[in-house]
Amino acid sequence: MAEENAVNRVVLTPDGKRKLDEELNELKTVKRVEIAKEIEVARSFGDLSENAEYDEAKNEQARIEGRIRDLEEMLRNAEVVDQAGQPAGVVGVGSEVRVFDLEYEEEDTYTLVGATEADPSKLKVSTESPIGKALIGARVGEVVEAQTPGGVIKLRIDEIH
After folding, report:
1. Rounded Cα gap, residues 107 and 97, in angstroms
2. Parallel, antiparallel, or unpaired: how do β-strands 96-101 and 151-160 relate?
3. Which of 16, 67, 102, 161 would be 154's cystine partner, CB 3.0–4.6 Å?
4. Are the C-beta atoms of residues 134 and 148 closer than 8 Å to each other?
């Protein structure tokens, strides 16, 4: 059982957990009610076997219920990692890391987050991504290498927050 839990473990920042809690609450208290009303209205149109509105509403209901189950599972297996509980000067979940790309001579600031919070367009990288894996545990001044789809990149850690 412990091994199964490790496989299903979801790493979240406190903000990521809050967002999942909010989404779950919205789905349960607002979206469920809305879709139930849509189904009721669609039923009133008559023959359900040829009722596109009913079919669409039932499909949306299934999607909502599936997302609720997924969110509940994620939250049940969540490990909330707060930056405050991590060693100072070491990159961990929740860290903002200013790096210098040695090949392109560019500076970027990445935020390390759990997989469900990742948003590469905002430089929020998952700890499971190549860059995230390379950065975890690094210290200021170190150079890390990440094997990305575009090739190996070398990043110097300049600052950790």
Report:
1. 10
2. antiparallel
3. 102
4. no
Q: Is the dihedral of CA 99, 101, 107, 112 positive or negative?
A: negative
Pairing mode of beta strands 124-126, 106-113: parallel
Gap between the Cα atoms of 18 and 16, Å rounded: 5
pTM listed for this prediction: 0.74
Secondary structure E strands in the chain: 10-12, 78-80, 96-101, 106-113, 124-126, 143-148, 151-160
pLDDT digits (tens, 9 = 90+) for 99-140: 999 999 999 999 999 988 999 999 999 999 999 999 999 999
Helix, strand and coil percent figures for the chain, each rounded to 5: 50, 25, 25
For residue 161 the two structure tokens come to: 């927050």
- The rounded distance, in Å, linking the Cα atoms of 13 and 45 is 46
Crossing angle (nearest 10°) for helices 52-76 and 14-26: 150
Amino acid at 10: V
